[in-house]
Amino acid sequence: xxxxxxxxxxxxxxxxxxxxxxxxxxxxxxxxxxxxxxxxxxxxxxxxxxxxxxxxxxxxxxxxxxxxxxxxxxxxxxxxxxxxxxxxxxxxxxxxxxxxxxxxxxxxxxxxxxxxxxxxxxxxxxxxxxxxxxxxxxxxxxxxxxxxxxxxxxxxxxxxxxxxxxxxxxxxxxxxxxxxxxxxxxxxxxxxxxxx
Length: 196
Prior knowledge:
This is DNA repair exonuclease SbcCD nuclease subunit. One of its GO terms (molecular function) is exonuclease activity. Residues 163-196 are annotated as: Disordered. Keywords: Exonuclease, Hydrolase, Nuclease. Residues 11-70 form the Calcineurin-like phosphoesterase domain. This protein is an alpha/beta fold. The chain has one domain: Metallo-dependent phosphatases (Purple Acid Phosphatase, chain A, domain 2), CATH 3.60.21. Helix content is 21%, strand content 21%. The protein has four helices and eleven strands; from the N terminus they run H-E-H-E-H-E-E-E-E-E-E-H-E-E-E. The strands form four sheets. The chain has a four-stranded mixed beta sheet with strand order 4-5-6-9, with no helix packed on it. It has a three-stranded parallel beta sheet with strand order 1-2-3. The radius of gyration is 16 Å and the shape is globular.
Protein backbone atom coordinates (compact mmCIF):
# COMPACT_ATOMS: atom_id res chain seq x y z
CA UNK A 1 0.00 0.00 0.00
CA UNK A 2 2.80 2.49 0.91
CA UNK A 3 4.54 1.66 -2.37
CA UNK A 4 1.40 2.88 -4.20
CA UNK A 5 0.67 5.84 -1.95
CA UNK A 6 3.95 7.70 -2.43
CA UNK A 7 3.97 7.75 -6.27
CA UNK A 8 0.29 8.70 -6.25
CA UNK A 9 0.91 11.58 -3.84
CA UNK A 10 3.83 12.84 -5.95
CA UNK A 11 1.91 12.47 -9.23
CA UNK A 12 -1.11 14.29 -7.83
CA UNK A 13 1.07 16.93 -6.13
CA UNK A 14 -0.89 16.61 -2.89
CA UNK A 15 -0.33 19.14 -0.15
CA UNK A 16 0.35 16.65 2.64
CA UNK A 17 0.32 12.92 3.38
CA UNK A 18 -1.26 11.89 6.70
CA UNK A 19 -0.55 8.54 8.38
CA UNK A 20 -2.83 7.34 11.17
CA UNK A 21 -0.75 4.61 12.76
CA UNK A 22 0.16 0.97 12.25
CA UNK A 23 2.23 1.71 9.15
CA UNK A 24 5.07 -0.51 10.41
CA UNK A 25 4.27 -4.17 11.07
CA UNK A 26 4.88 -5.00 14.73
CA UNK A 27 6.27 -8.42 13.73
CA UNK A 28 9.14 -6.80 11.80
CA UNK A 29 10.17 -3.54 13.49
CA UNK A 30 13.86 -3.82 12.70
CA UNK A 31 15.65 -1.17 10.69
CA UNK A 32 14.99 -3.15 7.48
CA UNK A 33 11.24 -2.78 8.00
CA UNK A 34 11.60 0.99 8.27
CA UNK A 35 13.58 1.20 5.02
CA UNK A 36 10.65 1.38 2.57
CA UNK A 37 8.87 3.92 4.78
CA UNK A 38 12.02 6.02 5.09
CA UNK A 39 12.62 5.91 1.31
CA UNK A 40 9.03 6.94 0.67
CA UNK A 41 9.31 9.85 3.09
CA UNK A 42 12.52 10.92 1.36
CA UNK A 43 10.73 10.87 -2.01
CA UNK A 44 7.89 12.95 -0.58
CA UNK A 45 10.44 15.40 0.84
CA UNK A 46 12.12 15.71 -2.57
CA UNK A 47 8.70 16.54 -4.03
CA UNK A 48 8.11 19.14 -1.30
CA UNK A 49 5.29 17.14 0.29
CA UNK A 50 5.28 17.02 4.10
CA UNK A 51 4.02 13.98 6.00
CA UNK A 52 2.23 14.07 9.35
CA UNK A 53 1.68 10.93 11.40
CA UNK A 54 0.60 9.42 14.67
CA UNK A 55 1.85 6.09 16.02
CA UNK A 56 -0.58 3.24 16.56
CA UNK A 57 -0.45 0.18 18.78
CA UNK A 58 1.74 -1.78 16.33
CA UNK A 59 4.33 0.94 15.60
CA UNK A 60 4.39 2.91 18.86
CA UNK A 61 8.15 2.34 19.16
CA UNK A 62 9.10 2.17 15.47
CA UNK A 63 7.72 5.53 14.32
CA UNK A 64 9.64 7.56 16.93
CA UNK A 65 12.84 5.82 15.74
CA UNK A 66 11.92 6.67 12.16
CA UNK A 67 11.27 10.30 13.11
CA UNK A 68 14.85 10.50 14.40
CA UNK A 69 16.19 9.13 11.10
CA UNK A 70 14.40 11.47 8.67
CA UNK A 71 14.33 15.21 8.07
CA UNK A 72 12.21 16.77 10.82
CA UNK A 73 11.11 19.61 8.56
CA UNK A 74 9.11 17.24 6.35
CA UNK A 75 8.05 14.42 8.70
CA UNK A 76 6.02 15.36 11.75
CA UNK A 77 5.24 12.63 14.29
CA UNK A 78 2.47 14.09 16.41
CA UNK A 79 1.53 13.16 19.95
CA UNK A 80 4.78 11.62 21.13
CA UNK A 81 4.70 10.21 24.66
CA UNK A 82 0.90 10.26 24.61
CA UNK A 83 0.78 14.08 24.63
CA UNK A 84 -1.30 15.85 21.99
CA UNK A 85 0.71 18.06 19.65
CA UNK A 86 0.06 20.17 16.58
CA UNK A 87 1.72 21.21 13.35
CA UNK A 88 0.49 23.65 10.72
CA UNK A 89 1.02 22.84 7.07
CA UNK A 90 0.88 25.84 4.73
CA UNK A 91 1.69 24.90 1.14
CA UNK A 92 2.72 27.77 -1.12
CA UNK A 93 -0.34 29.58 -2.44
CA UNK A 94 -2.75 27.63 -0.22
CA UNK A 95 -4.50 28.27 3.04
CA UNK A 96 -2.88 26.68 6.10
CA UNK A 97 -4.34 23.65 7.83
CA UNK A 98 -3.46 22.65 11.38
CA UNK A 99 -3.07 18.98 12.29
CA UNK A 100 -3.48 17.78 15.87
CA UNK A 101 -2.59 14.24 16.87
CA UNK A 102 -1.97 11.76 19.66
CA UNK A 103 0.31 8.68 19.50
CA UNK A 104 0.42 5.41 21.40
CA UNK A 105 3.15 5.17 24.05
CA UNK A 106 2.84 1.40 24.44
CA UNK A 107 1.06 -1.41 22.61
CA UNK A 108 -1.94 -1.04 24.94
CA UNK A 109 -3.54 2.25 25.97
CA UNK A 110 -6.61 1.93 28.19
CA UNK A 111 -7.26 5.65 28.61
CA UNK A 112 -9.36 7.62 26.13
CA UNK A 113 -7.04 10.12 24.42
CA UNK A 114 -9.76 12.73 23.94
CA UNK A 115 -9.94 13.23 27.71
CA UNK A 116 -6.74 15.27 27.40
CA UNK A 117 -7.59 16.99 24.09
CA UNK A 118 -5.86 20.41 23.91
CA UNK A 119 -8.79 22.70 23.05
CA UNK A 120 -6.97 25.85 24.16
CA UNK A 121 -3.88 25.28 22.01
CA UNK A 122 -5.64 25.09 18.65
CA UNK A 123 -5.48 27.86 16.08
CA UNK A 124 -8.74 29.63 15.34
CA UNK A 125 -7.56 31.03 12.00
CA UNK A 126 -7.22 27.70 10.15
CA UNK A 127 -9.14 24.44 9.85
CA UNK A 128 -7.92 21.69 12.18
CA UNK A 129 -7.67 18.03 11.20
CA UNK A 130 -7.37 15.47 14.00
CA UNK A 131 -5.22 12.36 13.55
CA UNK A 132 -5.92 9.42 15.81
CA UNK A 133 -5.40 5.66 15.96
CA UNK A 134 -8.10 4.42 18.30
CA UNK A 135 -10.74 1.80 18.95
CA UNK A 136 -14.02 3.54 18.14
CA UNK A 137 -17.11 2.90 20.26
CA UNK A 138 -15.44 0.08 22.19
CA UNK A 139 -15.57 0.94 25.92
CA UNK A 140 -13.04 -1.03 27.92
CA UNK A 141 -10.77 -1.63 24.93
CA UNK A 142 -7.00 -1.57 25.48
CA UNK A 143 -6.55 0.36 22.21
CA UNK A 144 -7.26 3.96 23.22
CA UNK A 145 -11.07 3.68 23.27
CA UNK A 146 -13.02 6.71 22.07
CA UNK A 147 -16.70 7.20 21.37
CA UNK A 148 -17.94 8.88 18.22
CA UNK A 149 -19.77 11.35 20.47
CA UNK A 150 -16.51 12.32 22.20
CA UNK A 151 -14.81 12.88 18.83
CA UNK A 152 -17.67 15.12 17.73
CA UNK A 153 -17.21 17.25 20.87
CA UNK A 154 -13.62 18.13 19.91
CA UNK A 155 -13.25 21.41 18.00
CA UNK A 156 -11.79 19.96 14.79
CA UNK A 157 -12.95 20.33 11.20
CA UNK A 158 -12.40 16.65 10.40
CA UNK A 159 -10.94 13.47 11.89
CA UNK A 160 -8.64 11.05 10.09
CA UNK A 161 -8.56 7.87 12.15
CA UNK A 162 -7.88 4.19 11.98
CA UNK A 163 -8.02 1.57 14.64
CA UNK A 164 -7.30 -2.04 15.42
CA UNK A 165 -10.87 -3.32 15.35
CA UNK A 166 -12.58 -1.07 12.79
CA UNK A 167 -15.95 -2.07 14.25
CA UNK A 168 -17.74 1.02 12.99
CA UNK A 169 -17.12 3.88 10.66
CA UNK A 170 -16.45 7.46 11.64
CA UNK A 171 -18.14 9.66 9.05
CA UNK A 172 -16.33 12.85 8.18
CA UNK A 173 -18.25 16.09 8.40
CA UNK A 174 -19.42 17.48 5.03
CA UNK A 175 -16.66 20.09 5.07
CA UNK A 176 -13.96 17.42 5.10
CA UNK A 177 -14.01 17.20 1.33
CA UNK A 178 -13.44 20.89 0.77
CA UNK A 179 -11.35 22.34 3.60
CA UNK A 180 -9.31 25.18 2.11
CA UNK A 181 -9.54 23.72 -1.39
CA UNK A 182 -7.47 20.71 -0.29
CA UNK A 183 -8.06 17.44 -2.07
CA UNK A 184 -8.86 14.61 0.31
CA UNK A 185 -7.89 11.07 -0.56
CA UNK A 186 -8.11 7.93 1.46
CA UNK A 187 -5.88 4.92 1.42
CA UNK A 188 -7.47 1.50 1.22
CA UNK A 189 -5.95 -1.94 1.24
CA UNK A 190 -5.52 -1.49 -2.51
CA UNK A 191 -3.74 1.86 -2.13
CA UNK A 192 -4.85 5.47 -2.35
CA UNK A 193 -8.23 6.39 -3.80
CA UNK A 194 -10.43 9.43 -4.04
CA UNK A 195 -13.61 9.50 -1.94
CA UNK A 196 -16.76 9.18 -4.04
